[in-house]
Design goal:
Elements lengths: L25 E4 L5 E4 L5 H14 L3 H14 L3 H13 L3 H14 L3 H20 L3 H14 L3 H17 L3 H11 L3 H16 L4 E5 L15 E6 L10 E5 L2 E6 L13 H4 L6 E10 L3 E6 L1
Antiparallel strand pairs: 1-2, 3-6, 3-8, 4-5, 4-7, 5-6, 7-8
Length: about 300
């Protein structure tokens, strides 16, 4: 069994494997299923690697890089490549750090290195967001999600992905990522159920907008009936169709791509489908925002 080294699995210490007690002993099998403690053997490469880590912790990145390169001259060990990647990442050389994480993974498929690489990819995604390169940001965060098996990391990556998808005008995918990150799986199930209805229905659908301006009195219970009344004299929109519930204005039929879903018709699209007024039946609230109804 290997001794402990800087960069070993997380349960040995912090996120890069540094223990609270330096140079812990390790257990070794004596061949008869009896384990006994033996002192760690500290090779020249290990000593140099640990010195590099201490320099890195003190913010002396250039000195740390020199020291870890010396360690690699003695032994091309995956732990040393992992530490080198961390140091280079600290120096904001993300592509260089990515290269050395990959070098470490070629030598050993360490989950610690995968998690370190995943966190770097998130940082790279955030940098791409700042330069409006959203497709590249999405590529980075998707790679990060494939690498990590840490739940906290994964949830954070999903939130970042949700932000990216919103910026790319992909709100439905963003919604799913956000709900998964917050473990709101019931919302995901409801979304998928409603999405199937929207895809398969032959009904004429509408969205009711402006509800908050009318006291949120529009009914959200499935099956509730509302009245639709044309307002050709409306000073803001001659195609306006008012939504009435219990003889009170509850909102308007959405007439903008920003206030309706793609499956719904706008007020302008349905205005010639009836004379002065008609009725609609409430179906559901989609994505906690869009009140969807169908003409009856």
């Amino acid at each position: 069994m290997d001794e402990w080294h800087v960069g070993d699995p997380e349960d040995w210490g912090d996120h890069v494997g540094v223990p609270d007690i330096a140079y812990m002993g390790y257990l070794q099998d004596d061949g008869e299923n009896n384990e006994y403690e033996v002192p760690p053997h500290i090779s020249k490469s290990n000593k140099l690697r640990d010195e590099a880590w201490k320099l890195r912790e003190n913010g002396r990145y250039n000195d740390a890089l020199i020291k870890i390169n010396e360690a690699l001259e003695y032994s091309s060990d995956w732990r040393s490549y992992n530490i080198k990647a961390i140091i280079i990442e600290d120096m904001n050389n993300y592509n260089g750090a990515l290269y050395y994480y990959d070098q470490a993974l070629k030598l050993y498929n360490s989950q610690v290195v995968k998690d370190n690489k995943a966190r770097l990819l998130e940082r790279m995604a955030e940098k791409c967001i700042s330069t409006n390169d959203y497709p590249k940001a999405l590529e980075h965060i998707n790679q990060a999600l494939k690498l990590t098996d840490n739940e906290n990391n994964r949830n954070g990556f999903l939130r970042t992905k949700s932000d990216i998808l919103q910026l790319m005008d992909r709100p439905r995918e963003a919604y799913i990522c956000n709900k998964l990150a917050n473990k709101q799986f019931n919302h995901v199930d409801e979304f998928e159920k409603q999405s199937k209805i929207l895809k398969d229905t032959a009904d004429t659908l509408i969205c009711i907008s402006g509800r908050k301006f009318y006291g949120n009195c529009a009914p959200t219970v499935e099956g509730s009936i509302v009245k639709l009344i044309k307002e050709p004299e409306n000073e803001h929109d001659s195609d306006a169709i008012r939504v009435e519930f219990n003889q009170k204005t509850a909102g308007y039929v959405a007439n903008s791509p920003h206030t309706k879903i793609s499956e719904a018709k706008s007020a302008s699209e349905i205005k010639n489908m009836f004379e002065n007024c008609t009725k609609a039946r409430i179906l559901f609230v989609f994505m906690e925002d869009y009140l969807v109804a169908k003409l009856i």
